[in-house]
Fold this protein.
Amino acid sequence: MNRKKLVSIEIKNDKAYIFPVLSFIDSLAQRHTTMDVSRYQQLRYVAAGMLKQRIENSYPGATGPIYVELYLVGDFIEISVKDKGVPGWQDFTYDKNEITENRDDLNNYLISLYVDEVGMEKLGNEGQRVYIRKKFINPLEFAKPEPYKETVALDTNISIRPVTSQEDVIEAIRCIYSEYGYSYSYERLYYVNSFIQLIKNREIMSFLAVNEHGQTAGHFALAFSDLYKNMPEISTVVIKKEFRGLGLFAKFIEYCEILGKEEGFRALMGQPVTYHPMSQKAFLRAGYTATALLMSYINTEIETEYNKGERLGLSACVKILDKDIYSKIYSPDELRDFLDKIYKRLGIRYDIICESKADNCTEISLETSTTLKMSKIIIRKAGFDLENELQQSIKNIIKQKSEMVELVILLNTQSCAYAYDIAKKCGFALSGVIPGSENGDYLIMQMLPGDSFNYNDLVVVGEFEELKNDIINMTSNKE
């Protein structure tokens, strides 16, 4: 996601700074965003409480620096507070039954209504950071178009071209709507200006499949992320009903590989859904390696003929484009054979070292999306305080009503195996691995608060089914 820092302000832990700092941020926000006053006031209310909390608790009985920062992150405005004071999570949780009796519960309930995302990061020797985000574009009430009607394909000579103009963007949005209505989780793709900005910022590369008569047959995109750097995901794949059965999915994958080599990508990632074996087979035929099962990943609001009111899963796969890359990973003993099989199939140079060693300090971040009802925890370094940090974050996640928690552990650090053992102790289960990123390789674990994984509902084939059985066997052997 494109990220632009507007300002970083250093203050002391004195409440007298709250009003002038927020007034200065007000002026910057008005200059750089189009957010209306009422929506901005909601964000400001939460920011004031967040800053007050850290001023009161960061340096008890002493004076120390606090940094207030303002960012534009895609279509979000982000306000963060960072310090090196006494560690402590900002508690955004609440009990809805107590909001009329308890001021803290009422405040946190309002936070859940007023901001779109909250996040916390433990930065090791650099202290900690807590942040809030809110979309600065005004949400639109979409008037639902007429139901999608199939047309007759006038020819099947399909070519692929990048989305470059506003007319192309509108056609791409129509294509997405034909499959998902207005339920697709990445809602920035429904705004013409936002869609264009995503392309300009190189957060996505978007493509249309068009026949010789100018009819749109489908759409797909390469989506880039900060976590999996230089390893875009083939996403937002839509093939209109009248053009199915022509092998377009395989053609999209092939096109991305050719483009990826031209662009110098390290790898490509696919995440075919766990109810559609045809897309899984297409990736496997193209030489992708099954690496992870992301259970209950898609929110129930997504409009599909498959979910029936339940969250849906994804199956992750990777293809390495740069065969010269090398990975040195630190594996838990019990995962050595599992990881060895995956890395052999990837066809890259690698070494697996089985050792468990805690770092001097923990570097961990937690982000919760109220829209997707999911949370993500990223562990880059695991110190002896990791168990306490994980338990606290799980407590917050449960109160925030997240339906799925994804835990990501950097595999290229000596504390990976230690972090894995602590995560298991805290109730996380293995989901697989995402290798190949410029930022490193990641071990993936998950938790469904108050529920367990149901592998029986997965529809997976080939390597994905083998991966599922390997994960089930390792889980059952531990119990």
Confidence is low (pLDDT under 50) at residues 139-144. The first helix runs from residue 18 to 32. The domain at 1-139 is CATH 3.30.565.10 (Heat Shock Protein 90). The longest strand covers residues 3-12.
